[in-house]
Structures are given as C-alpha cells and as structure tokens.
C-alpha cells in the first residue's frame, strides 16, 4: 500500500488486482453496495423530512448533489467489479420462489403479531401518506403481491393481446367504455393489467364496480384494495377530475349475466350516465371491445333461488358452476383480445347538452354501436375461441 | 374581569360570544377564548362550573334539559347582547342515559336556536360529526355536504344530532343570520378522550371479519383551526372537516402497534346491544356499521370557501394520539384527556 493516496474509490480500482488474494471480493462489493444503498436511504429519508419542514432551495440542491454523488460511487463500484471480472451476486427478482417467499413472510408476520416477540408491522415514520395509501382504498402492497397471479392470467392463461393502446392518452383524463361479460367480472381487472403492463406510460386504470359487491364481506374490501371503485357519479367525477383513467361497463349486471346465446350482443347502456359523466368532466370516451371474456363462464341458466339471501343479483348456472363446487370458479381458457377504439370527443356538445336527455340517449347509443361494430369486425376474423 | 379595548391597538375586536358545553370541544374553545385578547366578552353556559380558572369569562349555570331553559337563555342573550353562540353541547360519546341525551341533543338545540332567534343573535355555530352521514355500503368514497344525512335510520343518538342540525339550518334562513355546522371526522390527538379513542386504546382492537373500511381522522389542531375560521368570519352552511388523507382501518391498527382481532359478525349486534344495556360496551350496536362500511367526508368545500388547510394528515393524528397514550402509561404525560 505504498502508492499515493487518491480518492478512495480510485485507489480501490488501482489496488484491486495486486491486492486480490488478501480480500474477499464478491462479498465486499456486494456489501459495500448494499451499505451504500442503506446509507442513501437514510440520507434520503432525513432530507425529505427536512425539506418538508424547511422549504429551502439550498437543501434541495444539496440533496440532489448527494444523490448524484452516490449514483456516481455506485456506478464506479459496478465498473470496478466489471473491470476486475469479479462476480457480482445479482439480486434475484422477487417473482422467483414466490411460494417460498410467501410462506417466509407469513411466518414473519405471524411472529410479528405476537406481542413481546415482534415489532409492529408498520412503522408510521417509514410511511408517507401519498405513497402507501390511495385516496380510494387501493393498496399498492397488496396489489404487488397479487401481481404474479394476474400476470399469469393475463399472459399465460388467456394470452391477451391488445390493439390500439396508442388511443389511450399518456396523461390526462379519459373514460374507457367497454362491453361487460363473463359472469365473474374478470374483464375489469384484465383491462387494468393490460394498460398498466402494455401501455408505454403504464397508466393506472380505475374501474367502477357494481353496488352489490360492496355489501358483501371480503369481496367488497378486496375490490377496493385492487383498484375498483364503487360505481357512483360522485366517485367517477372525482376520479376524472384528478385526471385518472376510469373504466366503466355501462351494461352492468345485464352484461355479465347474459345467456350464452346472447354473447357479444351488447345490452342497453344503462341510462346514459357515462355520457353525462364525460360531458360534465369534459373527458374523451375511449370505446373498448373485449373479446374472449364471454366464453370463460358460459351461462346456461340464471337462478334466482337463494340469490337474495346471499346478496347477489342471481346465481349463474354454467357448465362448471355450481356442479364442480369451488373448482367451478376456474374460468375457461379462451383466447382474449382487447381493442381500444379511437377517442370520441364530446366537448363540442358543451355543458348545455347535459339537460338534453334525448341527445344523451343518442350519444350513448352511438358509443354502443361503435363498440358493437368493433366487436363484430373482430369476431369475423376470429378462427377459434381457444386460439384466437 | 372584562378587558377594555385599547385605543392604540389596531386589532379587531369581536362582538360578545357565548359558548355551551363542557366536553372536549367546549373546553378547548373556552381556553382559546380566554387567552385571545380580541374577545372582550365571553359567556360560558353549562349545567356545572368548569374546572378551568376563568379570568374574563362570565359563567351562567343553565341546564338545557330543563323546561323553560329557552326563556332563561333568551334573557341571558339579551342582557349580554350576544352576537355569536357556539353550541358544543353535543357529546361525541353516546350518553348512557338515552332519554336525557335526546333532551340535550335535540330539544336542547331547539331551545338554543329559539332563544337565539328571539334575542336577535346574529350567528350560531354547531359542532356536529361526519358520522351523521351514516356508514353504508352505497356511500360514495367521499361524502359531500349535499349528501343526505342517513344515520337517523340506524341510530337514535345520531338522529338527535341530525335534528339539532335541522334547527340550526332553520335558524340560518332568518334574514341577516348565519348558521354554521361543522361536521368533523373522528377527532384524534393527544388530549381528547371519547368512545372512539377508548376503542383505539384497547390493546386488542376488534374489527369485523371480512370488512376493512377506510377511516378518516381530524387532528385536534385542525379542528381548532376550523373553529377559529368560522368564529372569526361568517361562513354559513355545513362544512366537513378532517385532516388530509384516508387509511384502511386495519393499517391504522397496525401502525399503532396493536393487535387486530377480527370478530365474526354473526350475532355480534345482539351481543353489543346487550353489553350496551349492561354499561360495558362503549356504544350501541348501530355503531358497528362504522367498522364495516365507508363513511369518509370530502373537505373540498371547507378548503375552497373557508380557507381551511389541514396541517396534519390522518397518520399524524393517529400517531399523536398513540404517542400521548404511551407517554401516559409511563406518567410522562400528565394531562388527562378531556372526556367528551
């Protein structure tokens, strides 16, 4: 170590080949990097807290400088390991061993829940309101846990292909209007996955959910956590006014509960509530045609027996439900495609159109025809239900 | 001991103000009015003398549940030339004595508004709660002031509060009169003590299995800010007040480091109602709904019209509350909560 001292990272670069036998490179590099990360996290945390209180530009600048410096250090470190061909232990992506990880985290949670043994799960100081809690009850953490499953359904099970995603603006509000189908409303969550996975700006779609769902235990809470919002004008307006993408299925329960022989026949589009919504919030309507969802649970018969005490509109009888018990809830693996049409701009009608019920009905019918046409065109090309 | 206005001081002086109620809201307001020199004349109306040492406030003993309380009130208002009445005699915790609660909340408020109308009081302020909207599965995520108050269907206690609101709104229709109703979400902070804080201070906080609604809190300071705003300026109408943000009930319990015990809904209502009659449960069974369904209010109107800006988030309110509670356990925080 007689060489002249330079900046620590540079000396590391120069000394590394000669000193190689004396230190344990792979471990060290990994450790340094993780320590840097930790340090950075702490610094960031304190800076954010200071910035929140002080509102001082020099602090923000210093924060940026330190961020840059740590980035540089990390890249130097990476370079150095690369030059010396030291093996970098890459962090495994989280999706591997999800079951094992799940079990591990479950055990951890159980231990943490026992008083005296574990600390509380959440530390309030680590949480910031904006990051962790959605104003409409979506839980990003919970969603992250379910993501592998939804991705599996999206990519492998239904092999969903999307067309015309470019019709969705990369920012700003828009109302996605789609056809509803499939007995169990999978189409809403798949639409959400489609836009968040495949759209270049990975936008977050909030879908409006039928009222009755929120009367049910577990299901109601679950729907809120995965990004569903109760279908009401207040909620939809609030979402659109904060420039969200909102997906609505104006057919409602009539749409998902169609008899199999009526598949792809779009039902009446409610009472034109979505048109009023678009006019009021001045948001473009993007027609969405979903093909394939009609075949996941073909309805043979609708039974109203026991439906009322269970709090649901009807009990569907399909080839699998209720004969196979819980297994009957497994949908059939049809091939899906989702088509996004060109945005329909209603701004030319202005706010005074809100009072013209006839016009609203006409517009609603126009959107319905538009989606029906889109679906009919695509069905003409479809060779098979299962392979598309 | 009333202070005389200094001629060289340019600060505005507020006209005579009367305050009712000795709960948390009343006492904090009384402290503020005592300390603020801009209020030269403060009248405190209650059925018992407050423990607080009163310097400039005049105390009148009045029981709102007595008949002819309205006549007495009217005489006092006329004598003291009252301009503003802040009616905080609206307990947060449902009183055990149901019939007295009805007399106090519903009939008492009627007495106050009637007396105010006859004594030509210009401004009335009522402290209510967002619970009056009721927790229903078909509530929108953010309830606005236009939304009907539907809690009356389930809870008699809240029905009385809605009655009181109606009397105040009726008073607001008189020419030249202002009636303000502050609906605040669950108040949390270091000093308050209500049935809701008692619920959150249980080591095992019970929830309902399968339900996890979003909850909303009001930090004590934010509440005080809204009171100040409506006392100092005229803002007629109903206003929702809460701290910023919402969080799921289960997360709130986790963040406090408590243990969440989900209970089966089956038969729970009967059990809670029985326990309520036996003076064990802190609230009647109708309040279970608030652990099941949403009841979150939008504060846009207060922000736009009143200039109310929440300084705290719901998490801050929760953490301030739980921090004070922890300090009380080790006797480092001696200020006991004001029961309300």
Descriptive report:
In chain A, the strands form two sheets. A seven-stranded mixed beta sheet of chain A has the order 1-9-6-2-5-3-4, with helices on both faces. A two-stranded antiparallel sheet of chain A has the order 7-8. Chain A has 13 helices and nine strands. Chain A has two domains: 8-83; 133-381, Glycerol-3-phosphate (1)-acyltransferase (3-Layer(aba) Sandwich). Helices cover 46% and strands 10% of the residues of chain A. In chain A, helix 2 packs antiparallel against helix 3 (57-83) and helix 9 packs parallel to helix 11 (273-281). The relative contact order of chain A is 0.09. Chain B has 340 residues and is α/β, with parallel strands linked by helices. Chain B has one domain (17-329): Rossmann fold (3-Layer(aba) Sandwich), CATH 3.40.50. Chain B has eleven helices and 15 strands. In chain B, strands 3-2-1-4-5-6-12 form a seven-stranded parallel beta sheet, with helices on both faces. A two-stranded parallel sheet of chain B has the order 7-11. In chain B, helix 2 (69-80) runs parallel beside helix 3 (98-118) and helix 3 (98-118) packs parallel to helix 4. Classes of the chains: A alpha/beta (388), B alpha/beta (340). Chain A binds chain B through residues 113, 115, 119-124, 127, 129, 132-133, 135-137, 139, 211, 214-215, 217-218, 220-221, 224, 229-230, 232-235, 238, and chain B through 137-142, 144, 203, 208-214, 244-248, 251, 254-259, 265, 293, 298, 313-315, 318-319.
